[in-house]
Amino acid sequence: TEEELTQMVLALTDYGGAYGGFEPDSDNGFLTLEQRADEDFDPQTETQDLQQFGWTKTYAEDFVSSQAVEDRAGVFLIGSTVDLYENVEGAGGHFDDTTAELSELAGKTSEGFTVDRVETFQSDVGDEAVGFIIDGTAEDEDGSEFAISAGGLAFRHGRLMGSLGFATFGAGSFEEELKRLAATMDQRISRVL
């Protein structure tokens, strides 16, 4: 049910005290197909993928640090998302497709962000999982460039796909934190189900 999906994502307190000053993103909640696809590097292809694999709903809960954005320093975004599919095969197919697309991101640009490097890591959460670190450069309004690093972990739990991530100005290393939080989210999914 929709209520169950809202209970599966991470709360701000799950991230720890270092993120206590973060505020809920104004776009939190259930996402339409278009909103969900817009979160991807290639929204047009992602729309087709979501339809092909039987996506039905997404609930997202992100938190933002306006201070980090203003200072252009440190972690500025944290969040988690849960996607529901019609069946396990669809969730597994979309997971495999998403994993394959990660290796193709280096060198691509979307909305002023260019991916310089993608590194993946393994995790034993859920039925299958993959973690990733993406380093790149973004362009400011005045044309200057700055570094951004994003870390994420996606996992499949039956016909659900959970994902969580961090974005920071400069370089960041989130692998252990992502694994810990993904385990928390997977346990929460199991309790809700």
What fraction of residues sit in β-strands?
35-45%
What is the share of helical residues?
Answer: 25-40%
Radius of gyration: 16 Å
Structural class: alpha+beta
Mean pLDDT: 94
SSE order in H/E notation?
HHEEHHEHEHEEEEEH
Descriptive report:
The protein is of the alpha+beta class and 193 residues long. Helices cover 34% and strands 37% of the residues. Strands 1, 2, 3, 4, 5, 6, 7, 8 and 9 form a 9-stranded antiparallel beta sheet that branches. The chain is globular, with a radius of gyration of 16 Å.
Keywords summarizing the entry:
alpha+beta, single chain, 193 residues, 9-stranded antiparallel beta sheet
Task: Give a brief description.
This protein is α+β, with helices and mostly antiparallel strands and 193 residues long.
Provide the fold topology:
Elements: H1 2-8, H2 12-15, E1 23-24, E2 29-30, H3 33-38, H4 43-52, E3 55-64, H5 66-71, E4 74-85, H6 88-102, E5 109-110, E6 113-121, E7 128-139, E8 145-157, E9 160-169, H7 175-192
Antiparallel strand pairs: 1-3, 2-3, 3-4, 4-9, 5-6, 6-7, 7-8, 8-9
